[in-house]
Amino acid sequence: xxxKLRLISLMSFCGIxxxxxxxxxxxxxxxxxxDLLPSQNIINRGMGGQSAAYGDxxxxxxxxxxxxxxxxxxxxxxxLEVNSRTxxxxxxxxxxxxxxxxxxxxxxGIPLSRKRDFGMALGLKPISRISYKIERNEKxxxxxxxxxxxxxxxxxxxxxxxxxxxxxxxxxxRVGINAGYLFGSKDYSTRRTxxxxxxNYYRSNFATxxxxxxxxxxxxxxxxxxxxxxxxxxxxxxxxxxxxxxATRDVIHETYSPQENGPVRIDSVSIVNGQSGKVYYPxxxxxxxxxxxxxxxxxxxxxxxxxWGDDYRFFGDADQVQNSxxxxxxxxxxxxATNPKSYWNRVAxxxxxxxxxxxxxxxxxxxTYTVSFGFGLPMRPPAYTRQFAIINLAIEYGRRGxxxxxIRENFFRLAMGLNLSDIWFQKKKYF
Length: 431
Known about the structure:
14-stranded antiparallel β-barrel; 61% strand
Protein backbone atom coordinates (compact mmCIF):
# COMPACT_ATOMS: atom_id res chain seq x y z
CA UNK A 1 0.00 0.00 0.00
CA UNK A 2 2.77 2.44 0.90
CA UNK A 3 4.50 1.75 -2.42
CA LYS A 4 1.30 2.57 -4.28
CA LEU A 5 0.91 5.75 -2.30
CA ARG A 6 4.53 6.63 -2.99
CA LEU A 7 4.23 6.25 -6.76
CA ILE A 8 0.82 7.84 -7.09
CA SER A 9 1.50 10.84 -4.87
CA LEU A 10 4.87 11.73 -6.33
CA MET A 11 3.80 11.40 -9.94
CA SER A 12 0.49 13.20 -9.73
CA PHE A 13 0.82 16.26 -7.52
CA CYS A 14 -0.26 18.32 -10.55
CA GLY A 15 -3.82 17.96 -9.28
CA ILE A 16 -3.14 19.94 -6.10
CA UNK A 17 -6.18 21.90 -5.05
CA UNK A 18 -6.04 25.62 -5.80
CA UNK A 19 -7.35 26.29 -2.32
CA UNK A 20 -3.94 25.35 -0.88
CA UNK A 21 -1.90 27.55 -3.22
CA UNK A 22 -0.85 29.91 -0.43
CA UNK A 23 0.27 27.20 2.04
CA UNK A 24 3.38 25.07 2.13
CA UNK A 25 3.05 21.88 0.12
CA UNK A 26 5.78 19.29 -0.32
CA UNK A 27 5.07 15.67 -1.37
CA UNK A 28 8.50 14.63 -0.06
CA UNK A 29 7.37 15.56 3.47
CA UNK A 30 5.33 12.32 3.45
CA UNK A 31 8.50 10.33 4.26
CA UNK A 32 10.51 9.99 7.45
CA UNK A 33 9.61 12.73 9.93
CA UNK A 34 8.95 15.27 7.15
CA ASP A 35 11.01 17.93 5.43
CA LEU A 36 14.06 18.65 7.59
CA LEU A 37 14.59 22.34 8.43
CA PRO A 38 17.98 24.09 8.65
CA SER A 39 19.82 23.01 11.79
CA GLN A 40 21.99 26.11 12.22
CA ASN A 41 21.40 29.67 13.37
CA ILE A 42 21.01 32.46 10.81
CA ILE A 43 24.63 33.62 11.15
CA ASN A 44 25.87 30.16 10.17
CA ARG A 45 23.26 29.77 7.45
CA GLY A 46 24.63 32.90 5.78
CA MET A 47 27.97 31.06 5.57
CA GLY A 48 26.64 27.91 3.94
CA GLY A 49 25.71 26.28 7.25
CA GLN A 50 29.25 25.67 8.53
CA SER A 51 29.02 25.63 12.31
CA ALA A 52 31.17 22.89 13.87
CA ALA A 53 34.09 25.16 14.80
CA TYR A 54 32.18 28.45 15.03
CA GLY A 55 31.57 30.39 18.23
CA ASP A 56 31.40 34.00 19.37
CA UNK A 57 30.04 36.13 22.19
CA UNK A 58 27.13 37.58 20.17
CA UNK A 59 25.19 34.47 19.13
CA UNK A 60 23.99 31.03 20.26
CA UNK A 61 25.44 28.32 18.03
CA UNK A 62 23.11 25.48 19.06
CA UNK A 63 24.62 23.13 16.44
CA UNK A 64 27.67 22.74 18.71
CA UNK A 65 26.99 23.29 22.43
CA UNK A 66 30.73 23.62 23.15
CA UNK A 67 30.39 27.16 21.75
CA UNK A 68 28.22 28.19 24.73
CA UNK A 69 31.43 28.61 26.74
CA UNK A 70 32.13 31.77 24.71
CA UNK A 71 28.91 33.53 25.75
CA UNK A 72 29.86 36.62 27.78
CA UNK A 73 26.56 38.51 27.88
CA UNK A 74 22.91 37.52 28.07
CA UNK A 75 21.70 37.00 24.49
CA UNK A 76 18.16 36.86 23.19
CA UNK A 77 18.10 35.50 19.63
CA UNK A 78 14.86 35.27 17.65
CA UNK A 79 14.86 33.83 14.12
CA LEU A 80 12.14 34.34 11.49
CA GLU A 81 12.02 33.37 7.83
CA VAL A 82 9.94 33.21 4.68
CA ASN A 83 10.19 30.05 2.56
CA SER A 84 9.26 29.91 -1.09
CA ARG A 85 9.42 26.73 -3.16
CA THR A 86 8.66 25.68 -6.71
CA UNK A 87 7.97 22.02 -7.53
CA UNK A 88 8.27 20.59 -11.04
CA UNK A 89 7.47 17.18 -12.50
CA UNK A 90 8.39 15.79 -15.91
CA UNK A 91 5.73 13.06 -16.20
CA UNK A 92 3.22 14.58 -16.39
CA UNK A 93 4.82 18.03 -16.85
CA UNK A 94 3.56 20.38 -14.13
CA UNK A 95 4.64 23.24 -11.89
CA UNK A 96 3.48 24.39 -8.47
CA UNK A 97 4.71 27.26 -6.27
CA UNK A 98 3.96 28.28 -2.69
CA UNK A 99 5.36 30.45 0.09
CA UNK A 100 4.96 30.54 3.86
CA UNK A 101 6.38 32.42 6.89
CA UNK A 102 7.90 30.42 9.76
CA UNK A 103 9.62 30.87 13.10
CA UNK A 104 13.20 29.58 12.87
CA UNK A 105 13.98 29.43 16.61
CA UNK A 106 13.76 31.16 19.98
CA UNK A 107 17.07 31.17 21.90
CA UNK A 108 18.46 32.55 25.14
CA GLY A 109 22.18 32.47 25.95
CA ILE A 110 23.38 33.12 29.51
CA PRO A 111 26.96 33.40 30.87
CA LEU A 112 27.39 31.44 34.10
CA SER A 113 30.73 32.87 35.21
CA ARG A 114 32.65 36.09 34.62
CA LYS A 115 35.99 34.47 35.46
CA ARG A 116 35.64 31.20 33.54
CA ASP A 117 34.49 30.23 30.08
CA PHE A 118 31.18 28.82 31.21
CA GLY A 119 27.79 29.46 29.58
CA MET A 120 24.40 27.94 28.96
CA ALA A 121 21.59 28.18 26.44
CA LEU A 122 17.84 27.58 26.36
CA GLY A 123 15.86 27.22 23.19
CA LEU A 124 12.93 26.04 21.14
CA LYS A 125 13.38 25.13 17.50
CA PRO A 126 11.45 23.25 14.81
CA ILE A 127 13.16 20.14 13.44
CA SER A 128 10.90 19.18 10.54
CA ARG A 129 7.60 19.96 8.87
CA ILE A 130 4.94 17.78 7.21
CA SER A 131 2.57 19.56 4.86
CA TYR A 132 1.10 18.19 1.65
CA LYS A 133 -2.26 18.00 -0.07
CA ILE A 134 -2.41 16.13 -3.36
CA GLU A 135 -5.48 15.40 -5.45
CA ARG A 136 -5.57 12.87 -8.26
CA ASN A 137 -8.23 11.78 -10.74
CA GLU A 138 -7.88 8.38 -12.41
CA LYS A 139 -9.72 5.49 -14.03
CA UNK A 140 -10.24 2.19 -12.22
CA UNK A 141 -10.66 -0.69 -14.69
CA UNK A 142 -10.99 -4.13 -13.09
CA UNK A 143 -13.31 -7.14 -13.58
CA UNK A 144 -15.82 -5.29 -15.69
CA UNK A 145 -15.65 -2.18 -13.48
CA UNK A 146 -14.83 1.05 -15.29
CA UNK A 147 -15.17 3.95 -12.88
CA UNK A 148 -13.60 7.36 -12.31
CA UNK A 149 -11.96 7.84 -8.92
CA UNK A 150 -10.84 10.96 -7.08
CA UNK A 151 -8.12 10.36 -4.47
CA UNK A 152 -6.96 12.98 -1.97
CA UNK A 153 -3.65 12.46 -0.15
CA UNK A 154 -3.15 14.79 2.81
CA UNK A 155 -0.57 15.06 5.58
CA UNK A 156 0.30 17.41 8.44
CA UNK A 157 2.67 17.49 11.38
CA UNK A 158 6.30 18.00 12.19
CA UNK A 159 8.90 17.72 14.95
CA UNK A 160 10.18 20.24 17.52
CA UNK A 161 12.78 20.34 20.25
CA UNK A 162 12.89 22.32 23.47
CA UNK A 163 16.36 22.13 24.99
CA UNK A 164 18.89 23.46 27.43
CA UNK A 165 22.65 23.06 27.26
CA UNK A 166 25.92 24.08 28.86
CA UNK A 167 29.41 24.69 27.50
CA UNK A 168 32.65 24.84 29.47
CA UNK A 169 36.12 25.91 28.33
CA UNK A 170 39.60 25.40 29.76
CA UNK A 171 42.31 27.34 27.93
CA UNK A 172 41.96 26.38 24.27
CA UNK A 173 39.63 23.42 24.76
CA ARG A 174 35.80 23.59 25.01
CA VAL A 175 33.15 20.94 25.57
CA GLY A 176 29.35 21.13 25.73
CA ILE A 177 26.16 19.12 25.84
CA ASN A 178 22.49 19.72 25.03
CA ALA A 179 19.65 17.91 26.76
CA GLY A 180 16.22 18.37 25.28
CA TYR A 181 12.78 16.95 24.66
CA LEU A 182 12.10 16.09 21.03
CA PHE A 183 8.42 15.72 20.19
CA GLY A 184 6.18 15.75 17.17
CA SER A 185 3.27 14.37 15.20
CA LYS A 186 2.73 12.66 11.87
CA ASP A 187 -0.81 12.62 10.52
CA TYR A 188 -1.71 11.44 7.04
CA SER A 189 -4.83 10.26 5.27
CA THR A 190 -6.02 8.90 1.92
CA ARG A 191 -9.61 9.69 0.91
CA ARG A 192 -11.14 8.06 -2.13
CA THR A 193 -14.35 9.00 -3.93
CA UNK A 194 -15.95 7.13 -6.84
CA UNK A 195 -17.24 9.53 -9.49
CA UNK A 196 -20.10 7.46 -10.88
CA UNK A 197 -23.59 8.60 -11.84
CA UNK A 198 -25.21 5.16 -11.88
CA UNK A 199 -23.86 3.53 -8.68
CA ASN A 200 -23.73 5.30 -5.31
CA TYR A 201 -20.45 4.07 -3.80
CA TYR A 202 -19.51 5.12 -0.27
CA ARG A 203 -16.45 7.28 0.13
CA SER A 204 -13.50 5.74 1.99
CA ASN A 205 -10.89 7.18 4.31
CA PHE A 206 -7.69 5.60 5.60
CA ALA A 207 -6.03 7.79 8.27
CA THR A 208 -3.10 7.42 10.66
CA UNK A 209 -2.48 9.94 13.45
CA UNK A 210 0.79 9.53 15.37
CA UNK A 211 2.45 11.38 18.26
CA UNK A 212 5.92 10.81 19.63
CA UNK A 213 8.39 12.30 22.09
CA UNK A 214 11.39 11.61 24.28
CA UNK A 215 14.72 12.71 25.65
CA UNK A 216 17.26 13.92 23.06
CA UNK A 217 20.99 14.38 23.79
CA UNK A 218 23.79 15.78 21.66
CA UNK A 219 27.29 16.98 22.46
CA UNK A 220 30.19 18.88 20.95
CA UNK A 221 33.89 19.69 21.22
CA UNK A 222 36.00 22.64 20.05
CA UNK A 223 39.71 23.39 20.12
CA UNK A 224 41.51 26.60 19.09
CA UNK A 225 45.15 27.56 18.66
CA UNK A 226 47.07 30.50 17.22
CA UNK A 227 49.21 30.28 14.10
CA UNK A 228 50.06 34.01 14.17
CA UNK A 229 49.54 36.95 16.50
CA UNK A 230 45.96 37.61 15.37
CA UNK A 231 45.21 34.46 13.37
CA UNK A 232 43.65 31.30 14.79
CA UNK A 233 42.59 27.86 13.70
CA UNK A 234 39.43 26.46 15.25
CA UNK A 235 38.51 22.77 15.17
CA UNK A 236 35.09 21.42 16.07
CA UNK A 237 33.04 18.24 16.22
CA UNK A 238 29.46 17.47 17.24
CA UNK A 239 27.05 14.58 17.18
CA UNK A 240 24.43 12.42 18.79
CA UNK A 241 23.85 8.70 19.21
CA UNK A 242 20.73 6.86 18.07
CA UNK A 243 17.78 8.04 20.20
CA UNK A 244 14.63 6.15 21.19
CA UNK A 245 11.33 8.06 21.37
CA UNK A 246 8.02 6.76 22.70
CA ALA A 247 5.06 6.94 20.33
CA THR A 248 1.34 6.25 20.06
CA ARG A 249 -0.93 6.22 17.04
CA ASP A 250 -4.54 5.81 15.96
CA VAL A 251 -5.31 3.99 12.71
CA ILE A 252 -8.76 4.35 11.12
CA HIS A 253 -10.21 2.74 7.99
CA GLU A 254 -13.77 3.88 7.41
CA THR A 255 -16.48 4.86 4.96
CA TYR A 256 -18.07 8.28 5.32
CA SER A 257 -20.52 10.77 3.88
CA PRO A 258 -19.57 14.42 3.33
CA GLN A 259 -21.75 16.95 5.20
CA GLU A 260 -21.73 20.73 5.64
CA ASN A 261 -20.21 20.44 9.13
CA GLY A 262 -17.63 17.84 8.10
CA PRO A 263 -17.56 14.15 7.16
CA VAL A 264 -19.92 11.77 8.96
CA ARG A 265 -18.78 8.18 9.52
CA ILE A 266 -21.00 5.51 7.99
CA ASP A 267 -19.09 2.35 8.85
CA SER A 268 -15.79 1.50 10.52
CA VAL A 269 -13.83 -1.08 8.60
CA SER A 270 -11.17 -1.09 11.32
CA ILE A 271 -10.16 1.19 14.20
CA VAL A 272 -7.03 0.90 16.33
CA ASN A 273 -6.70 3.52 19.09
CA GLY A 274 -3.69 4.21 21.29
CA GLN A 275 -1.32 1.73 19.67
CA SER A 276 2.09 2.02 21.37
CA GLY A 277 5.37 1.91 19.52
CA LYS A 278 8.83 3.39 19.15
CA VAL A 279 10.46 5.96 16.89
CA TYR A 280 14.21 5.56 16.47
CA TYR A 281 15.92 8.84 15.64
CA PRO A 282 19.23 8.35 13.81
CA UNK A 283 22.77 8.96 14.96
CA UNK A 284 24.55 11.94 13.42
CA UNK A 285 28.14 13.17 13.45
CA UNK A 286 29.94 16.16 12.00
CA UNK A 287 33.24 18.00 12.16
CA UNK A 288 34.92 21.03 10.73
CA UNK A 289 37.75 23.54 10.65
CA UNK A 290 37.76 27.33 10.59
CA UNK A 291 40.51 29.88 10.01
CA UNK A 292 39.99 33.28 11.67
CA UNK A 293 41.74 36.64 11.46
CA UNK A 294 40.47 38.41 14.58
CA UNK A 295 37.93 41.15 13.80
CA UNK A 296 38.66 40.77 10.07
CA UNK A 297 37.64 37.53 8.40
CA UNK A 298 36.93 33.85 8.88
CA UNK A 299 36.51 30.90 6.53
CA UNK A 300 35.61 27.32 7.35
CA UNK A 301 34.35 23.97 6.14
CA UNK A 302 32.22 21.20 7.71
CA UNK A 303 31.22 17.67 6.84
CA UNK A 304 28.32 15.84 8.50
CA UNK A 305 26.56 12.51 8.08
CA UNK A 306 23.30 11.14 9.49
CA UNK A 307 22.44 7.43 9.57
CA TRP A 308 18.79 7.64 8.53
CA GLY A 309 18.87 4.45 6.51
CA ASP A 310 20.64 2.44 9.22
CA ASP A 311 18.87 3.74 12.34
CA TYR A 312 15.52 5.34 11.58
CA ARG A 313 12.36 3.35 12.27
CA PHE A 314 8.78 4.55 12.76
CA PHE A 315 6.71 1.81 14.40
CA GLY A 316 9.13 -0.65 12.81
CA ASP A 317 8.81 0.90 9.34
CA ALA A 318 12.06 2.00 7.69
CA ASP A 319 10.18 4.19 5.18
CA GLN A 320 11.82 5.55 2.02
CA VAL A 321 14.94 7.02 3.69
CA GLN A 322 18.69 6.58 3.33
CA ASN A 323 21.91 7.69 5.02
CA SER A 324 22.52 11.33 4.16
CA UNK A 325 25.58 13.59 4.10
CA UNK A 326 26.37 17.25 3.53
CA UNK A 327 29.48 19.37 2.95
CA UNK A 328 29.46 23.05 4.01
CA UNK A 329 31.88 25.82 3.02
CA UNK A 330 31.59 29.49 3.92
CA UNK A 331 33.08 32.57 5.46
CA UNK A 332 32.69 36.12 6.69
CA UNK A 333 34.48 39.45 6.17
CA UNK A 334 34.23 42.60 8.32
CA UNK A 335 36.11 45.49 6.61
CA UNK A 336 36.81 47.47 9.81
CA ALA A 337 35.01 46.35 12.95
CA THR A 338 36.47 49.13 15.14
CA ASN A 339 35.72 52.11 12.86
CA PRO A 340 32.92 54.10 14.56
CA LYS A 341 32.55 56.55 11.65
CA SER A 342 31.80 54.15 8.81
CA TYR A 343 28.74 51.97 9.38
CA TRP A 344 29.25 49.76 6.31
CA ASN A 345 32.81 48.96 7.39
CA ARG A 346 31.38 47.41 10.57
CA VAL A 347 28.87 45.24 8.72
CA ALA A 348 29.67 41.51 8.49
CA UNK A 349 29.44 40.19 4.92
CA UNK A 350 28.91 36.43 4.61
CA UNK A 351 28.71 33.85 1.83
CA UNK A 352 28.82 30.08 1.45
CA UNK A 353 27.33 26.96 -0.05
CA UNK A 354 26.57 23.35 0.83
CA UNK A 355 26.12 20.19 -1.16
CA UNK A 356 24.97 16.70 -0.27
CA UNK A 357 22.24 14.06 -0.53
CA UNK A 358 18.76 14.31 0.98
CA UNK A 359 17.62 11.63 3.44
CA UNK A 360 14.52 10.83 1.36
CA UNK A 361 15.05 8.25 -1.38
CA UNK A 362 12.05 7.60 -3.63
CA UNK A 363 13.29 5.42 -6.51
CA UNK A 364 16.58 7.42 -6.64
CA UNK A 365 18.85 9.68 -4.60
CA UNK A 366 17.96 13.35 -4.27
CA UNK A 367 21.07 15.55 -4.55
CA THR A 368 20.76 18.88 -2.75
CA TYR A 369 22.68 22.13 -2.84
CA THR A 370 22.28 25.60 -1.34
CA VAL A 371 24.03 28.89 -2.11
CA SER A 372 23.77 31.51 0.62
CA PHE A 373 24.64 35.12 1.41
CA GLY A 374 24.34 36.92 4.71
CA PHE A 375 24.81 40.19 6.53
CA GLY A 376 25.33 41.15 10.15
CA LEU A 377 23.88 44.65 10.60
CA PRO A 378 24.87 46.26 13.93
CA MET A 379 22.16 48.47 15.39
CA ARG A 380 24.65 50.06 17.78
CA PRO A 381 28.38 49.50 18.40
CA PRO A 382 29.21 47.20 21.35
CA ALA A 383 29.76 49.17 24.54
CA TYR A 384 32.40 48.34 27.12
CA THR A 385 29.69 46.32 28.86
CA ARG A 386 29.35 44.03 25.79
CA GLN A 387 25.86 45.33 25.09
CA PHE A 388 24.90 45.06 21.43
CA ALA A 389 21.99 44.72 19.04
CA ILE A 390 22.46 43.06 15.66
CA ILE A 391 20.14 42.10 12.83
CA ASN A 392 21.44 39.05 10.96
CA LEU A 393 20.11 38.27 7.49
CA ALA A 394 20.56 35.11 5.42
CA ILE A 395 19.48 34.68 1.81
CA GLU A 396 19.46 31.08 0.56
CA TYR A 397 18.70 29.59 -2.82
CA GLY A 398 18.88 25.86 -3.47
CA ARG A 399 17.58 22.76 -5.17
CA ARG A 400 16.52 19.25 -4.15
CA GLY A 401 16.55 16.63 -6.88
CA UNK A 402 17.83 16.72 -10.45
CA UNK A 403 16.56 16.03 -13.96
CA UNK A 404 16.27 12.32 -13.15
CA UNK A 405 14.06 12.93 -10.10
CA UNK A 406 10.29 12.44 -10.27
CA ILE A 407 9.91 15.83 -8.58
CA ARG A 408 12.52 18.60 -8.64
CA GLU A 409 12.24 21.30 -6.01
CA ASN A 410 13.76 24.79 -6.10
CA PHE A 411 13.59 26.84 -2.92
CA PHE A 412 14.32 30.37 -1.75
CA ARG A 413 14.58 31.37 1.90
CA LEU A 414 14.90 34.83 3.43
CA ALA A 415 15.76 34.60 7.13
CA MET A 416 16.22 37.29 9.75
CA GLY A 417 17.65 36.92 13.23
CA LEU A 418 17.43 39.61 15.91
CA ASN A 419 20.23 39.38 18.49
CA LEU A 420 19.87 41.48 21.64
CA SER A 421 22.22 41.42 24.61
CA ASP A 422 22.64 42.99 28.02
CA ILE A 423 25.13 42.73 30.86
CA TRP A 424 24.73 39.89 33.34
CA PHE A 425 27.44 39.70 35.96
CA GLN A 426 29.07 43.11 35.65
CA LYS A 427 28.01 45.57 38.34
CA LYS A 428 27.14 49.12 37.30
CA LYS A 429 29.53 51.77 38.62
CA TYR A 430 27.52 54.81 37.58
CA PHE A 431 23.85 55.70 37.80
